[in-house]
Amino acid sequence: MNAQSLLAIAQQRGILEQRQLNMLYITLIALGLIAPWIAYPVFLMKLLCFGLFACSFNLLLGYTGLLSFGHAAFLAAGGYSTGYLLSQHPGIGPELAIIGGTAAAALVGALFGALAIRRQGIYFAMITLALAQLLYFLFLKAPFTGGEDGLHGFSRGKLLGFIDLTDNHAMYYFVLAITMLGFALVKRVVYSPFGQILQAIRENEDRATSLGYNVSRYKWLAFVISSGVAGLAGSTKAVVFQLATLSDAHWHMSGEVVLMTLLGGVGPLLGPFVGAGIVVSLQHLLAQSPLGTWGTPILGCIFVLCVLCFRSGVVGSIKLLVKKNFK
Amino acid sequence: MSAAFNFNAATLTRTITVSLFTGLLASTAQASISDNEIRIGYLDDMSGPYSDLAGPGGLEAMRMAIEDVGGKIGQHKIELFSADHKNNADLGANISRQWIDQRNVDLIAGLNSSAVAIAVTRLVEEKHRFAIVSTAAAATLTNEYCTPNHLHYVYDTYSVSNGAAKAIVASGGDTWYMLSADYAFGHAMDAQVSKAVVESGGTIIGKANHPFQTTDFSSYILQAQASGAKIIGLASAGSDLVNAISTAKQFGLMESGQTLASLMVFITDIKAIGLPTAQGTQFVSGWYWDMNDESRAWANRYFERTQRMPTMVQAGMYSSTFQYLKAVEATGSDEPQVVREYMMKTPINDMFTKNGRVRVDGRMVHDMYLAQVKTPEESKGEWDLFKILGTIPADEAFLPLSQSKCKLVNADQKVAGASRP
């Protein structure tokens, strides 16, 4: 076999995979469109928001190799900014408030990133955690955040001035659109030349530097994009639930997003959504069952099992299975 | 179709409604109980740090209330379900939303943690349901965050801090040292107590803030001891409170003639600390099981079911649920405004309080009690922990309407509230 035929096979295979992937996405979109008629829309919205949040985290961990342990800061920065905008200026509408929240989170990300990317590994994680804690205390003490009570009681408003979002179904489709937009952005980043360089940095930072790339700038940009998407998720969540509270900014939330991503699978783009689905559904179900008290231990056991048996997470394992058996 | 209609109309009074059509007919015929069921959701911390003071015990108290009205009102079943909000406003609001949208809940009760309580009461206002807050303490719930759709039943930060400060100053404790937890709750209590102490002629001679969840209180207690104040006010809760009281005991604070005034105490805290350590601590409580015959009788029934004595919150949970169901029975409606109006004009007389009344801002005002932890010698039983030193009348115990920022209180009511002592 010569090189050309190998290339042809590779291309064919690529096209095949692309086709399968497209089929999968179309199925998922169709599922997303009919879902609110089957399941409770507010629950689905929560799932989508956390999915997007985990997706932003995955962009850093899975594709750049940066473990941010303060990702809650961006979720909260988005949520609080949107909440503040909607409660102080209800006239601006949800879409502008969400854009404002996303921008604020990206700005915070730009600042945090500029400081944190100077260090690597555990030091990077610790700096992000420390900065996120700083922001937590800012939200706790600042006069405009409502302290421990949080921001409450702003309305969802009207999308583009005429679609009433108090209707759960209308809100759901808005959230679905935002999630797809955020997901598309992350996907575009990952598959762009920029994303290839990020992966090169993840694999071997020194080599990327030796090839002439300004590694710090790439890492910083990835950090800003990731925090922006996390802020988008936080802003959307604030509009859905009409509240922004400290639980978004707490380090528990930073831990939860790590858990979601690891459970779903680090790397595959859909992994974080599956992971978020598992964690959010479990929390939701257990809260209302007599097993409620056992919520945290059950989640812990699932996590241990996942780490021991499916290292690559749920989606990663399915991918491996498919590869082994169907190709 | 018309045959079915006739059949349904004719048997309306005696048949259990099956079809949607009959359901609609029945509900218009017999006042307005939505879905022919009274649905109560109990939302509280069931597993976390506050699960002792309300938690599963509160659910049991509500079950007792439902049994005591006979399990149903007329032919309308009462359904009770519960969930754990883990002190997380997100989760609490999400569960409440689901209860409202999917289960058409009529009353949401419990509601610990001010962030959760505020989030849920805002939601019930938007969705026109009813909520009774028993567990959360924030006085803002009937002040700037009041809504026409909820009541605040047992106690609040104002009543426990203001009442305690005034009563203690009146009984001679006129110099205070305040030790507060360094977060919103501690600061609010500190401000309230300081104001009340100064107003009633006492002085604050020193203050310190300790971080949330401190384990080593020795330096704070030494400072308090050195201040020479007669009263050491503790504006902390939970494990902080337990640690502060234990440290005070170790340093012999009580033996040197100083008294601890703890502002937020539940019977479960004292049970955990133990009488030898906690003895002598003064505080304000909304209810105590050994208060009178009625409270004792109820508490014993509760004890048989749970092997614990009820906290004031759990007693309030029983009382509020019972009164709510009585109101639904009397008005034949579970419409929030109808029930609230009935509850506002009907004085509350039961095992929880005598002559309690619901104010226009949603605050249930009732007598509060100044209590003291017994010494081990005074205590005659495992749960014989407090003695009641005095009563703070309902009108003085809670924030007067004249100072209210609640949107439901109009100018006339403010003046009327002010003229009443």
TrEMBL record, chain A:
<keyword id="KW-1133">Transmembrane helix</keyword>
<protein>
    <recommendedName>
        <fullName>Branched-chain amino acid ABC transporter permease</fullName>
    </recommendedName>
</protein>
<dbReference type="GO" id="GO:0015658">
    <property type="term" value="F:branched-chain amino acid transmembrane transporter activity"/>
</dbReference>
<dbReference type="InterPro" id="IPR043428">
    <property type="entry name" value="LivM-like"/>
</dbReference>
<keyword id="KW-0812">Transmembrane</keyword>
<dbReference type="InterPro" id="IPR001851">
    <property type="entry name" value="ABC_transp_permease"/>
</dbReference>
<keyword id="KW-1003">Cell membrane</keyword>
<keyword id="KW-0472">Membrane</keyword>
<dbReference type="Pfam" id="PF02653">
    <property type="entry name" value="BPD_transp_2"/>
</dbReference>
<dbReference type="GO" id="GO:0005886">
    <property type="term" value="C:plasma membrane"/>
</dbReference>
Automatic annotation (TrEMBL), chain B:
<dbReference type="InterPro" id="IPR051010">
    <property type="entry name" value="BCAA_transport"/>
</dbReference>
<feature type="domain" description="Leucine-binding protein">
    <location>
        <begin position="37"/>
        <end position="374"/>
    </location>
</feature>
<comment type="similarity">
    <text>Belongs to the leucine-binding protein family.</text>
</comment>
<dbReference type="InterPro" id="IPR028081">
    <property type="entry name" value="Leu-bd"/>
</dbReference>
<dbReference type="InterPro" id="IPR028082">
    <property type="entry name" value="Peripla_BP_I"/>
</dbReference>
<protein>
    <recommendedName>
        <fullName>Leucine-binding protein domain-containing protein</fullName>
    </recommendedName>
</protein>
<dbReference type="Pfam" id="PF13458">
    <property type="entry name" value="Peripla_BP_6"/>
</dbReference>
<keyword id="KW-0732">Signal</keyword>
